[in-house]
């Protein structure tokens, strides 16, 4: 078995590890941390892999490099294999498993961090990473994330998702702008309401009235938008779970029917290959779904 695979030299775990590092770093120089000796070693190892498989694994892109389609496929296979070995080693040594979870900044702050901090009896540890839907999807495929929270489903195969719950957007306007609800609604529809928008959050780019709104300020996430709202200088659309702190007297809730009727969702996403590599991941997935679903369901309306 595997006689042909090991009939010649050039294939090794160390060389495959180098391919993974170069793919993540985006260049041999960055992967080698500008060390000339390591850079020469990495270049040689990649060349040896290319000679072994008789294909190109990396190609130039600007001042850096990127993996070719064959390189990405070999990196995926290698990562899958090495994760299996790593999980086996941890099991033999009875080491604690760390699960990596990617999510947007607002979801992480409002739901994920409080939940994980409270999970003191959990048999696993966790690491959170801020990422958008596209990056989470890519990294779940690459198995550089174990789980992700995204705002849309389904994702590309073989990724799977579970609905965690829904949320809505609401417009909040500082009373300092001297607008009643009717005036604020009219100013919004005339595209004159001074507004801060979180363009990178799930939902916001898909809402037609907001997609091309001439916002006074654009920020990355709802947490930042809420901080701007609390300066009482700009209005903001916030999800129900980030409504202004009570009492809300400094702000008025403005009804925008075409937006109020929309519902958005959070989904937990994972790669089923992870579950085949690590049986404990299935229990962690079920725990995350159960607790996060309850947090979203019991959050502010």
What does this protein look like?
The chain has three domains: 7-81, Winged helix-like DNA-binding domain superfamily/Winged helix DNA-binding domain (Arc Repressor Mutant, subunit A, Orthogonal Bundle), CATH 1.10.10; 97-165 and 265-297, Periplasmic binding protein-like II (D-Maltodextrin-Binding Protein, domain 2), CATH 3.40.190; 169-262, Periplasmic binding protein-like II (D-Maltodextrin-Binding Protein, domain 2). It is built from twelve helices and twelve strands. A five-stranded mixed sheet has the order 4-3-5-12-6, with helices on both faces. By secondary structure, the protein is of the alpha/beta class. Helices cover 45% and strands 20% of the residues.
Furnish the topology, listing elements before pairings.
Blueprint: H1 13-25, H2 28-31, H3 36-53, E1 58-61, E2 64-67, H4 69-93, E3 98-103, H5 105-118, E4 125-130, H6 133-142, E5 147-150, E6 160-167, E7 169-174, H7 181-189, E8 195-198, H8 208-211, E9 217-219, H9 222-229, E10 235-239, E11 251-254, H10 257-260, E12 264-270, H11 272-277, H12 279-297
Parallel strand pairs: 3-4, 3-5, 8-9, 8-10
Antiparallel strand pairs: 1-2, 5-12, 6-12, 7-10, 7-11
